[in-house]
Amino acid sequence: MEVKFEQTSQIEVQQKCFDHCGPAVGHCLSIAFQLISTFFIISAICALLVQLVFQLLIRSGLNKVKPSADDFDLDEMPLSVIIVARDEESNLRRNLPSVLASQYSNFEVVLVDDYSSDRTKLVMEEFASIDKRVKVVVNKEAFPGKKGALNTGIEAASNEYLVFTDADCKVDKEWLRHFAVAYASGGDFVVGHGAYDRGTSWFSEFYAFEAHRSAMLYFAAAAQAAPYMCVGRSMGYSKSLFNKSEGFKPFKHIQSGSDDLFLQSVKGVARISLVPSAVTYSLSPSSIKRWMVQRKRHLGAGKHYPFNILLMIFLYEITNLLIPLAYLFLLFTKSEHIPLLTFLVIIRILLFRSNAQIFSGLIRSNDDISQLWWTEYPMSWLNALISMNIGLMKKEAWTTRR
Protein backbone atom coordinates (compact mmCIF):
# COMPACT_ATOMS: atom_id res chain seq x y z
CA MET A 1 0.00 0.00 0.00
CA GLU A 2 1.37 3.35 -0.97
CA VAL A 3 1.43 6.03 1.66
CA LYS A 4 1.31 9.64 0.47
CA PHE A 5 2.82 12.39 2.61
CA GLU A 6 1.27 15.81 2.20
CA GLN A 7 3.96 18.46 1.90
CA THR A 8 3.28 21.72 3.75
CA SER A 9 5.14 24.92 2.96
CA GLN A 10 6.78 27.04 5.63
CA ILE A 11 4.34 29.84 4.96
CA GLU A 12 1.39 27.51 5.52
CA VAL A 13 2.90 26.34 8.82
CA GLN A 14 3.36 29.93 9.95
CA GLN A 15 -0.18 30.76 8.93
CA LYS A 16 -1.61 27.79 10.85
CA CYS A 17 0.41 28.77 13.93
CA PHE A 18 -0.78 32.35 13.63
CA ASP A 19 -4.39 31.21 13.23
CA HIS A 20 -4.02 29.12 16.36
CA CYS A 21 -1.93 31.51 18.48
CA GLY A 22 -2.82 34.89 16.99
CA PRO A 23 -5.74 35.75 19.29
CA ALA A 24 -3.71 34.79 22.36
CA VAL A 25 -0.73 36.85 21.26
CA GLY A 26 -2.95 39.80 20.45
CA HIS A 27 -4.59 39.51 23.87
CA CYS A 28 -1.15 39.46 25.57
CA LEU A 29 -0.01 42.47 23.59
CA SER A 30 -3.19 44.32 24.51
CA ILE A 31 -2.65 43.61 28.20
CA ALA A 32 1.01 44.69 27.96
CA PHE A 33 0.01 47.94 26.26
CA GLN A 34 -2.59 48.64 28.93
CA LEU A 35 -0.04 48.01 31.66
CA ILE A 36 2.45 50.36 29.99
CA SER A 37 -0.22 53.03 29.60
CA THR A 38 -1.22 52.67 33.24
CA PHE A 39 2.42 52.93 34.28
CA PHE A 40 2.88 56.16 32.33
CA ILE A 41 -0.37 57.63 33.65
CA ILE A 42 0.54 56.89 37.27
CA SER A 43 4.13 58.05 36.72
CA ALA A 44 3.05 61.30 35.09
CA ILE A 45 0.52 62.15 37.79
CA CYS A 46 2.92 61.27 40.63
CA ALA A 47 5.78 63.20 38.99
CA LEU A 48 3.59 66.26 38.50
CA LEU A 49 2.33 66.16 42.09
CA VAL A 50 5.92 65.88 43.37
CA GLN A 51 6.92 68.82 41.16
CA LEU A 52 4.00 70.91 42.39
CA VAL A 53 5.05 70.26 45.99
CA PHE A 54 8.64 71.21 45.14
CA GLN A 55 7.55 74.43 43.42
CA LEU A 56 5.43 75.43 46.42
CA LEU A 57 8.35 74.72 48.78
CA ILE A 58 10.65 76.77 46.52
CA ARG A 59 8.13 79.62 46.61
CA SER A 60 7.97 79.41 50.39
CA GLY A 61 11.77 79.41 50.67
CA LEU A 62 12.27 82.37 48.32
CA ASN A 63 9.71 84.36 50.30
CA LYS A 64 11.90 83.86 53.38
CA VAL A 65 14.97 85.37 51.69
CA LYS A 66 15.15 88.99 52.75
CA PRO A 67 16.47 91.53 50.22
CA SER A 68 19.74 93.21 51.19
CA ALA A 69 19.06 96.48 53.05
CA ASP A 70 19.91 99.66 51.16
CA ASP A 71 19.62 101.98 54.14
CA PHE A 72 21.63 99.90 56.63
CA ASP A 73 23.60 102.13 59.02
CA LEU A 74 26.98 100.56 58.41
CA ASP A 75 30.21 101.32 60.19
CA GLU A 76 32.55 99.96 57.57
CA MET A 77 34.17 96.79 58.84
CA PRO A 78 37.37 95.65 57.14
CA LEU A 79 36.97 92.84 54.59
CA SER A 80 39.53 90.62 52.90
CA VAL A 81 38.74 89.57 49.33
CA ILE A 82 40.59 86.37 48.41
CA ILE A 83 41.13 85.46 44.76
CA VAL A 84 42.98 82.30 43.78
CA ALA A 85 44.34 82.28 40.23
CA ARG A 86 46.18 79.80 38.06
CA ASP A 87 47.17 80.93 34.57
CA GLU A 88 44.66 83.78 34.71
CA GLU A 89 46.66 86.81 33.55
CA SER A 90 44.02 87.89 31.01
CA ASN A 91 41.10 87.45 33.40
CA LEU A 92 42.89 89.36 36.16
CA ARG A 93 43.52 92.32 33.85
CA ARG A 94 39.90 92.23 32.72
CA ASN A 95 38.05 91.68 36.00
CA LEU A 96 40.16 92.71 39.01
CA PRO A 97 39.58 96.44 38.33
CA SER A 98 35.85 95.89 38.99
CA VAL A 99 36.67 94.65 42.52
CA LEU A 100 39.04 97.52 43.18
CA ALA A 101 36.41 100.02 41.97
CA SER A 102 34.01 99.02 44.76
CA GLN A 103 32.18 101.84 46.53
CA TYR A 104 32.88 100.02 49.77
CA SER A 105 36.25 101.37 50.82
CA ASN A 106 37.52 99.32 53.77
CA PHE A 107 38.93 96.17 52.17
CA GLU A 108 42.05 94.44 50.97
CA VAL A 109 42.52 92.02 48.09
CA VAL A 110 44.64 88.92 48.66
CA LEU A 111 45.79 87.45 45.34
CA VAL A 112 47.05 83.88 45.52
CA ASP A 113 49.19 82.57 42.68
CA ASP A 114 48.39 78.86 42.43
CA TYR A 115 51.39 77.44 40.55
CA SER A 116 50.83 79.50 37.41
CA SER A 117 52.91 78.83 34.33
CA ASP A 118 52.15 82.13 32.59
CA ARG A 119 52.54 85.79 33.67
CA THR A 120 49.80 85.62 36.32
CA LYS A 121 52.15 86.43 39.21
CA LEU A 122 53.67 89.38 37.32
CA VAL A 123 50.19 90.78 36.64
CA MET A 124 49.36 90.41 40.33
CA GLU A 125 52.49 92.29 41.28
CA GLU A 126 51.64 95.04 38.80
CA PHE A 127 48.32 95.60 40.57
CA ALA A 128 50.03 95.49 43.97
CA SER A 129 52.55 98.14 42.86
CA ILE A 130 49.81 100.65 42.01
CA ASP A 131 47.25 99.84 44.70
CA LYS A 132 48.29 99.37 48.31
CA ARG A 133 45.13 97.37 49.05
CA VAL A 134 46.45 94.47 46.95
CA LYS A 135 48.58 91.76 48.55
CA VAL A 136 50.25 88.94 46.57
CA VAL A 137 51.07 85.51 48.03
CA VAL A 138 52.17 82.23 46.48
CA ASN A 139 50.54 78.90 47.25
CA LYS A 140 52.97 76.31 48.63
CA GLU A 141 50.47 73.77 49.95
CA ALA A 142 49.67 70.49 48.23
CA PHE A 143 45.92 70.07 48.79
CA PRO A 144 44.05 68.80 45.71
CA GLY A 145 42.08 71.42 43.78
CA LYS A 146 42.45 74.94 45.02
CA LYS A 147 42.04 74.20 48.73
CA GLY A 148 45.74 74.66 49.42
CA ALA A 149 45.74 78.03 47.69
CA LEU A 150 42.65 79.05 49.67
CA ASN A 151 44.37 78.04 52.90
CA THR A 152 47.32 80.23 51.91
CA GLY A 153 45.01 83.15 51.19
CA ILE A 154 43.08 82.77 54.44
CA GLU A 155 46.31 82.73 56.46
CA ALA A 156 47.55 85.84 54.64
CA ALA A 157 44.29 87.77 55.13
CA SER A 158 44.59 90.62 57.62
CA ASN A 159 40.89 90.83 58.44
CA GLU A 160 38.35 88.65 60.21
CA TYR A 161 35.68 88.70 57.52
CA LEU A 162 36.54 87.03 54.24
CA VAL A 163 34.98 87.30 50.78
CA PHE A 164 35.78 84.90 47.94
CA THR A 165 35.52 85.19 44.18
CA ASP A 166 37.39 83.96 41.09
CA ALA A 167 39.63 85.67 38.59
CA ASP A 168 37.09 85.21 35.81
CA CYS A 169 34.34 87.07 37.72
CA LYS A 170 33.27 90.67 37.35
CA VAL A 171 31.40 92.46 40.15
CA ASP A 172 29.41 95.67 40.53
CA LYS A 173 30.24 98.53 42.87
CA GLU A 174 27.77 97.39 45.55
CA TRP A 175 29.00 93.80 45.70
CA LEU A 176 31.24 94.15 48.77
CA ARG A 177 28.70 96.26 50.60
CA HIS A 178 26.21 93.36 50.47
CA PHE A 179 28.74 91.15 52.27
CA ALA A 180 29.49 93.83 54.84
CA VAL A 181 25.77 94.26 55.62
CA ALA A 182 25.38 90.48 56.01
CA TYR A 183 28.33 90.29 58.41
CA ALA A 184 27.18 93.35 60.35
CA SER A 185 23.74 91.73 60.71
CA GLY A 186 25.28 88.77 62.55
CA GLY A 187 26.08 86.31 59.76
CA ASP A 188 29.37 84.43 59.66
CA PHE A 189 28.74 82.49 56.42
CA VAL A 190 27.46 84.48 53.45
CA VAL A 191 26.03 82.83 50.33
CA GLY A 192 26.11 85.07 47.26
CA HIS A 193 25.17 84.34 43.67
CA GLY A 194 27.60 83.45 40.85
CA ALA A 195 25.75 84.27 37.64
CA TYR A 196 26.76 83.89 34.00
CA ASP A 197 26.42 86.46 31.23
CA ARG A 198 23.73 85.59 28.73
CA GLY A 199 26.07 86.25 25.83
CA THR A 200 24.83 86.24 22.25
CA SER A 201 24.48 82.54 21.43
CA TRP A 202 21.62 80.20 22.30
CA PHE A 203 24.07 77.98 24.19
CA SER A 204 25.31 80.79 26.46
CA GLU A 205 21.73 81.87 27.17
CA PHE A 206 20.71 78.33 28.04
CA TYR A 207 23.72 77.94 30.33
CA ALA A 208 23.08 81.28 32.04
CA PHE A 209 19.52 80.28 32.87
CA GLU A 210 20.65 76.86 34.12
CA ALA A 211 22.91 78.66 36.63
CA HIS A 212 19.94 80.86 37.57
CA ARG A 213 17.72 77.81 38.13
CA SER A 214 20.40 76.02 40.15
CA ALA A 215 20.91 79.05 42.40
CA MET A 216 17.16 79.45 42.86
CA LEU A 217 16.99 75.87 44.13
CA TYR A 218 19.86 76.08 46.61
CA PHE A 219 18.82 79.51 47.94
CA ALA A 220 15.29 78.20 48.52
CA ALA A 221 16.62 75.04 50.18
CA ALA A 222 18.91 77.04 52.46
CA ALA A 223 16.01 79.28 53.45
CA GLN A 224 14.11 76.09 54.39
CA ALA A 225 16.96 75.07 56.73
CA ALA A 226 18.49 72.63 54.22
CA PRO A 227 21.61 74.39 52.87
CA TYR A 228 23.56 72.22 50.46
CA MET A 229 25.34 74.42 47.94
CA CYS A 230 27.12 77.70 47.34
CA VAL A 231 29.66 78.79 44.74
CA GLY A 232 33.21 80.03 45.22
CA ARG A 233 32.54 82.84 42.74
CA SER A 234 30.56 84.76 45.38
CA MET A 235 30.65 83.63 49.00
CA GLY A 236 32.26 84.49 52.30
CA TYR A 237 32.81 83.40 55.88
CA SER A 238 34.63 84.57 58.95
CA LYS A 239 38.17 83.49 59.68
CA SER A 240 37.03 82.42 63.16
CA LEU A 241 34.44 80.04 61.69
CA PHE A 242 37.07 78.52 59.41
CA ASN A 243 39.64 78.11 62.19
CA LYS A 244 37.14 76.65 64.70
CA SER A 245 36.07 74.06 62.16
CA GLU A 246 38.35 71.50 60.57
CA GLY A 247 38.58 73.66 57.45
CA PHE A 248 39.04 71.59 54.32
CA LYS A 249 40.58 68.58 56.09
CA PRO A 250 37.46 66.32 56.08
CA PHE A 251 37.42 66.41 52.26
CA LYS A 252 41.00 67.33 51.42
CA HIS A 253 41.31 64.29 49.14
CA ILE A 254 38.49 65.53 46.87
CA GLN A 255 39.42 67.69 43.88
CA SER A 256 36.52 70.11 44.36
CA GLY A 257 34.22 71.01 47.24
CA SER A 258 35.98 73.99 48.82
CA ASP A 259 32.64 75.81 48.70
CA ASP A 260 29.63 73.47 49.01
CA LEU A 261 31.27 70.71 51.07
CA PHE A 262 32.68 73.28 53.49
CA LEU A 263 29.21 74.82 53.81
CA GLN A 264 27.76 71.42 54.68
CA SER A 265 30.52 70.75 57.22
CA VAL A 266 29.73 73.93 59.20
CA LYS A 267 25.98 74.37 58.59
CA GLY A 268 25.20 73.12 62.09
CA VAL A 269 27.15 75.93 63.77
CA ALA A 270 27.28 78.68 61.14
CA ARG A 271 24.95 81.67 61.01
CA ILE A 272 24.16 81.57 57.32
CA SER A 273 23.14 84.75 55.50
CA LEU A 274 21.56 84.48 52.07
CA VAL A 275 22.41 87.42 49.82
CA PRO A 276 21.38 86.73 46.21
CA SER A 277 21.99 90.39 45.33
CA ALA A 278 25.73 89.86 45.94
CA VAL A 279 26.18 88.81 42.32
CA THR A 280 29.28 88.11 40.27
CA TYR A 281 29.20 87.59 36.51
CA SER A 282 31.31 85.17 34.49
CA LEU A 283 31.37 84.29 30.81
CA SER A 284 29.39 81.18 29.96
CA PRO A 285 31.36 78.14 28.69
CA SER A 286 32.13 78.54 25.01
CA SER A 287 31.60 74.90 24.08
CA ILE A 288 29.96 71.64 25.14
CA LYS A 289 33.41 70.24 25.95
CA ARG A 290 34.14 73.10 28.35
CA TRP A 291 30.76 72.62 29.95
CA MET A 292 31.48 68.93 30.42
CA VAL A 293 34.71 69.78 32.27
CA GLN A 294 32.78 72.06 34.62
CA ARG A 295 30.02 69.51 35.04
CA LYS A 296 32.53 66.82 35.97
CA ARG A 297 34.02 69.07 38.65
CA HIS A 298 30.56 69.75 40.11
CA LEU A 299 29.64 66.07 40.10
CA GLY A 300 32.92 65.27 41.85
CA ALA A 301 31.73 67.16 44.93
CA GLY A 302 28.04 66.32 44.53
CA LYS A 303 28.49 62.60 45.09
CA HIS A 304 29.78 63.39 48.60
CA TYR A 305 26.58 65.20 49.62
CA PRO A 306 24.54 63.72 52.51
CA PHE A 307 22.02 61.07 51.48
CA ASN A 308 18.98 63.22 52.25
CA ILE A 309 20.32 66.02 50.04
CA LEU A 310 21.11 63.60 47.21
CA LEU A 311 17.62 62.10 47.51
CA MET A 312 16.01 65.54 47.35
CA ILE A 313 18.00 66.52 44.25
CA PHE A 314 17.35 63.15 42.61
CA LEU A 315 13.59 63.38 43.18
CA TYR A 316 13.45 66.87 41.75
CA GLU A 317 15.47 66.07 38.64
CA ILE A 318 14.05 62.61 37.86
CA THR A 319 10.42 63.73 38.16
CA ASN A 320 11.22 66.77 36.05
CA LEU A 321 12.69 64.54 33.32
CA LEU A 322 9.87 62.00 33.51
CA ILE A 323 7.04 64.46 32.90
CA PRO A 324 7.66 65.19 29.18
CA LEU A 325 8.37 61.52 28.43
CA ALA A 326 5.14 60.32 29.99
CA TYR A 327 3.13 63.21 28.56
CA LEU A 328 4.32 62.60 24.99
CA PHE A 329 3.59 58.87 25.25
CA LEU A 330 0.07 59.46 26.53
CA LEU A 331 -0.49 62.15 23.90
CA PHE A 332 0.61 59.71 21.20
CA THR A 333 -1.76 57.03 22.52
CA LYS A 334 -4.63 59.54 22.81
CA SER A 335 -5.12 58.82 26.50
CA GLU A 336 -8.31 60.08 28.10
CA HIS A 337 -6.21 61.52 30.94
CA ILE A 338 -4.52 64.12 28.70
CA PRO A 339 -6.80 67.03 29.83
CA LEU A 340 -5.97 66.42 33.52
CA LEU A 341 -2.26 66.07 32.79
CA THR A 342 -2.28 69.19 30.62
CA PHE A 343 -3.88 71.17 33.45
CA LEU A 344 -1.25 69.96 35.94
CA VAL A 345 1.60 70.68 33.50
CA ILE A 346 0.34 74.25 32.98
CA ILE A 347 0.10 74.82 36.75
CA ARG A 348 3.64 73.49 37.21
CA ILE A 349 5.01 75.72 34.42
CA LEU A 350 3.30 78.81 35.83
CA LEU A 351 4.65 78.11 39.32
CA PHE A 352 8.18 77.55 38.03
CA ARG A 353 8.09 80.70 35.90
CA SER A 354 6.79 82.72 38.85
CA ASN A 355 9.54 81.34 41.11
CA ALA A 356 12.19 82.25 38.51
CA GLN A 357 10.79 85.80 38.40
CA ILE A 358 10.84 86.09 42.19
CA PHE A 359 14.48 85.01 42.26
CA SER A 360 15.32 87.54 39.54
CA GLY A 361 13.80 90.21 41.76
CA LEU A 362 15.99 89.12 44.68
CA ILE A 363 19.08 89.39 42.48
CA ARG A 364 18.06 92.91 41.44
CA SER A 365 19.39 92.40 37.95
CA ASN A 366 18.41 94.73 35.14
CA ASP A 367 18.52 91.70 32.85
CA ASP A 368 15.47 89.58 33.72
CA ILE A 369 16.89 86.16 32.87
CA SER A 370 13.67 84.54 34.10
CA GLN A 371 12.33 85.19 30.59
CA LEU A 372 14.32 82.11 29.59
CA TRP A 373 12.19 79.84 31.80
CA TRP A 374 11.26 77.76 28.75
CA THR A 375 14.87 76.51 28.45
CA GLU A 376 14.52 74.44 31.62
CA TYR A 377 13.59 71.16 29.95
CA PRO A 378 16.18 71.29 27.13
CA MET A 379 18.89 72.06 29.69
CA SER A 380 17.68 69.37 32.09
CA TRP A 381 17.96 66.75 29.38
CA LEU A 382 21.32 68.05 28.18
CA ASN A 383 22.60 68.00 31.76
CA ALA A 384 21.39 64.43 32.19
CA LEU A 385 23.05 63.29 28.95
CA ILE A 386 26.32 65.02 29.86
CA SER A 387 26.26 63.52 33.35
CA MET A 388 25.73 60.02 31.93
CA ASN A 389 28.52 60.57 29.42
CA ILE A 390 30.86 61.70 32.19
CA GLY A 391 30.03 58.59 34.17
CA LEU A 392 31.01 56.40 31.23
CA MET A 393 34.27 58.19 30.43
CA LYS A 394 37.57 57.26 32.00
CA LYS A 395 39.03 59.65 34.50
CA GLU A 396 42.28 59.87 32.55
CA ALA A 397 40.43 61.42 29.63
CA TRP A 398 39.75 64.57 31.62
CA THR A 399 41.79 67.65 32.32
CA THR A 400 40.30 69.45 35.29
CA ARG A 401 40.79 73.16 35.56
CA ARG A 402 40.86 74.32 39.14
Structure, explained:
The structure is a single chain. The protein has 402 residues and is α/β, with parallel strands linked by helices. The chain has a domain of 200 residues: Spore Coat Polysaccharide Biosynthesis Protein SpsA, Chain A. It has 12 helices and 8 strands. It has an 8-stranded mixed beta sheet, with helices on both faces. Helix 2 packs parallel to helix 3.
Summarize the structure.
With 402 residues, this protein is of the alpha/beta class. Helix content is 54%, strand content 12%. The protein has a domain at 64-198 and 221-285: Spore Coat Polysaccharide Biosynthesis Protein SpsA, Chain A (Alpha-Beta Complex).
CATH architecture of the domain at 64-198 and 221-285: Alpha-Beta Complex
Q: Structural class, from secondary structure content? A: alpha/beta
Name the CATH class of the domain at 64-198 and 221-285: Alpha Beta
The 3D shape can be described as elongated
The CATH superfamily of the domain at 64-198 and 221-285 is identified as Spore Coat Polysaccharide Biosynthesis Protein SpsA, Chain A
Mean pLDDT across all amino acids? 84
| Total number of beta strands | 8
Kindly identify the CATH topology of the domain at 64-198 and 221-285.
Spore Coat Polysaccharide Biosynthesis Protein SpsA, Chain A
| Strand arrangement in the largest pleated sheet | 3-2-1-4-7-6-8-5
Following the backbone from N to C, one meets helices and strands in this order, namely: HEHEHEHEEHEHEHHEHHHH
**What is the terminal-to-terminal distance?**
93 Å
Main beta sheet strand tally, sense and closure = 8 strands, mixed
The proportion of residues in beta strands is 5-15%
Enumerate how many helices there are, as a single number: 12
Helicity range: 40-55%
Radius of gyration: 27 Å
